Every structure is written in C-alpha cells, then in structure tokens.
Amino acid sequence: MRDAAEGQQKHGQQEHIETMPLFSTTDMNGRMTVLRPGCRVGRTAPLLPWLLAAAALWALTGSVPFGALLGLAPTPAISILLGHPVTVSVSVVLLFVASGATGGVYSRAVEQFGQTRVAGLFATLAVAGGLVAGAGVLLLWTLTSDPSRPFDLEAIVTSPTIPPEFGAVVGAGFALIAAIALLRLPGSIAHAQRRQADIERLRLEGSSFTGTLTAVNFTNSWLFNLPMFTVEVSYIVDGAPLVVSAYMRTSADRVPVVGSRMIVLTDDRGTTHVELDLASGAAFEPDVGKYAPSDG
Fold first, then answer.
1. What's the rounded Cα separation, in Å, for the pair 79 and 9?
2. What whole-number distance in Å separates Cα of residue 79 and Cα of residue 93?
3. The CATH number, out of the four listed (2.40.50, 1.10.287, 3.30.300, 2.90.10), of the domain defined by the range 206-280
C-alpha cells in the first residue's frame, strides 16, 4: 500500500512537470488550456460520478451544522442527535473525506479539460451543490413536520433561538453560488474543448517550426503559487523571421531561460500554439526562489 501511494504521488508530480511550463497565445490565468500528447479532447461524462459522490458527501457533512446550529432540524430530538459529540465526530471525518473527494473532482477535471478554471467550477459545484441539497432536505422536512408554522423571514430578528429561516437564508447563499457555477460551467467547458481541439488539430495537421524563446517577462502575479509571464518566441517561415507573443504559466523551478528551443505550430486559419521543446534539453532559471510567491 505504501509503495502504491508513493508511486501515485510520483506519478502526480511527473504529470505536473510534464505540463509546466504552459503556454497560450490567446488566454491567460485559469483559462490557459493544455492537452497532453496522446490525450483526446476532454469529456464531462467521466467526471459526473465523482461530482455526484462529492456532492453527496458534502450534503451529509453539512447536515450537522445546518441541523444543529442553523435551526434546520424538524424536531428538538433530531437537533440534539445532530449536535451529539459522536455525530459531530462523524461529521468531521466526513468533512475530510468530502474534501478529498472534491480534490479528486478538481484533479480529474484538470486531467480532462487541461484548465484550472473549469476544474474550479466543478469543485465549487460539488461543495455548494451538496450543501444546498442537504439544507434543502432538512428545510423541507422541517416545514412538513409542522405545516401550521408560518415561514417568516422576520423570525431571524425576532426569534429568541436560531429559527429555520436563518438556515434557509444560509442555504440560499450556497444555492446562489452553485447556480453561478452551474451557469458558467457549460461555456467554460466549451471554451476548454475548443482550445484542446485547436491543439489536437495543430499537432496532427498544422505546420511545425523550430523557434527560440527571445523574451521572458514576469508579470509579478501568480495563479495559486504559479508565476505568470509574457513571452516572445521567434521563428522563421520561408526565410522571413516572425515573432509570436504568448502567456506562460509555470512553477518557480521550471522557468525556461531566454534562448530555449521552442516548437511553434500554425495552420492556415491563423491559429498558433507554442510549446517548449523538452527533447532538445531545456534550460531553466537556476534561482528557483526568484519567482516564488512571497509569504507576505
């Protein structure tokens, strides 16, 4: 088991190295997209079981704070049960499991679509959607258990205890987050698939040229802990020198130096994609702390 875990960790580290640095002639930050050699354009279907499983775990985890703390318990007995130390301990364990499952959704979304923006939306939908589902079930159960009780938002201010209305408002906040993620997800997926399709087409049908990295400019910004750059790549077509500009995201220990060999892919549609030519023996900035994010 330990050997398998270590092997999986090394495999994850290797995948991270293979995709860094990442270049895009059109997008920056989280919209930058990668397609690993040999992989096909990403699909949503393989992610759905992981998304639903993570959401279910968050629904179970969120039922304890929603029921015991935020008033969404249909009876006092259930409220006491949800607040019991054993139940809370189980909820804490589920929290770690749900977080791990959400991380799995994120990593698999990155693997499918090569884009952190899409992966972040999937992870957000798993968390917020699961919490909304748990809160919704508890709210419906609470309202049906006492139909004579009016649902009045003024109770948030006037009630001496935490009323179900307060939990409903918190749940509505998560519902808004989930709705925003759900609305943005289709367009983001389509964008990532278009970018991956462009890269796939260029590798199969495009013209390939040998280029040289002629400029590396740090933007003094990071995506998570990954520094962002603008770069220029020069190459020659029919004896004429050309220069293409691109955005670059990489890790602090894999910043290619000026003069590094590049691969430039183009087609007659005007689409351009650049990659670092790792086969030529790429050289990276020796000062690995130069572009690391500051602690402050």
1. 41
2. 19
3. 2.40.50
The Cα–Cα gap between 207 and 276 comes to 16
Interval 18-72: pLDDT, tens:
578 999 999 999 999 999 888 899 999 999 999 999 999 999 999 888 888 777 8
Model confidence, pTM: 0.85
Q: Where in the chain are all domains bearing CATH 2.40.50?
A: 206-280
In the chain, the amino acid numbered 34 is: V
> How far apart are the C-alpha atoms of 139 and 70, rounded to whole Å?
11
CA distance 91 to 96: 9
DSSP 8-class letter at 220:
E
Dihedral angle computed from the Cα positions of residues 111, 116, 119 and 124, in that order, rounded to the nearest 10 degrees? 160
- Tens digits of per-residue pLDDT, 217-267? 999 999 888 999 999 999 999 889 999 999 999 999 999 999 999 999 999
* CA separation for the pair 23, 39 (Å, rounded): 17
Q: Which residues contact 63 (CB under 8 A, 6 or more apart)?
A: 82, 91, 134, 137, 138
Task: Find out whether 72 and 66 touch, Cβ atoms under 8 Å.
Answer: yes
Picking from 197, 60, 192, the residue whose alpha carbon sits closest to that of residue 122 is 192
**Span of 3-7, 130-134, 144-148 with lowest mean pLDDT:** 3-7
Angle 260-13-204 from CA coordinates, rounded to 5°: 55
> Which residues lie closer than 8 Å to 180 by C-beta, 6 or more apart?
none
Question: CA–CA separation, 109 vs 102, rounded Å?
Answer: 10
Apex CA 33: angle with CA 30 and CA 36, to 5°?
135
